[in-house]
Amino acid sequence: MEFSETASLQKVWAWLVAGLIAYVPANIYPMLRTSTLGQTSENTLMGGIIELVHHGSYGVAFIVFFASILIPIAKFIAIAFLAISVRKPANLGNHGRLVLYEVVEFIGRWSMIDVFVVAILTALVQLDFAAAISPGIAAVSFALSVAFTMLAAQSFDPRLMWLAENRVES
Q: Which label site among 80, 99, 119, 124 has the fewest CB atoms less than 10 Å from its CB?
């Protein structure tokens, strides 16, 4: 099978765009639906973070903000930068791009932590008469966004960085 630079980058961009599309409803729609004694409330990601701050849980709010907002956005930017930098020369050399690639790959393993928290809460709090927690559509969208960005990172072929470097040198 012959290596195709264009096909490799097309896969990266396709998965990245799919991840971005799934990330939008993950932030717009409710992540959790909580029912307590007949009263139901829904929280989006940012709404949940604000709620945590109002209750004085600053550390947890920061962790949720970091894991749910900052990390995914940083992953989108990093993968897009890597894909662009193999076509146009970048100030970041091969070593810097390789470190960025490895960081994105490492973070991918931990990106599903939000979805796991929602799943655990849903499983643990099911006292139908007093309280119940159920995942919202945002949980599915967030899981899809994470999976798509993981596929985008895995589709990126690190050999492209060296090919780009060789093109610049010649």
A: 124
Cα separations (Å) of 73 from 1, 65, 69?
34, 11, 6
Is 0.85 surpassed by the pTM of this model?
A: no
Mean pLDDT within 55-64:
85
**In this structure, is the dihedral angle defined by the CA atoms of residues 102, 78, 70 and 132, taken in order, positive or negative?**
negative
**Nearest Cα residue to 48 out of 93, 38, 62, 39:** 62
The ranges assigned to domains in the chain are: 46-166
Residues present in the chain in total: 170
- Look at the block and give the residue holding tokens 């940083």: 74
* 132 vs 56: CA distance, rounded Å: 23
Query: Which helix (H) or strand (E) element contains residue 120?
Result: helix 113-124
Report DSSP state, residue 92: S
Q: How far is CA 2 from the centre of its chain?
A: 31
Q: In what side-by-side order are the strands of the sheet with 126-127? A: 39-43, 32-36, 131-135, 126-127
In angstroms, the first-to-last Cα distance of the chain is 26
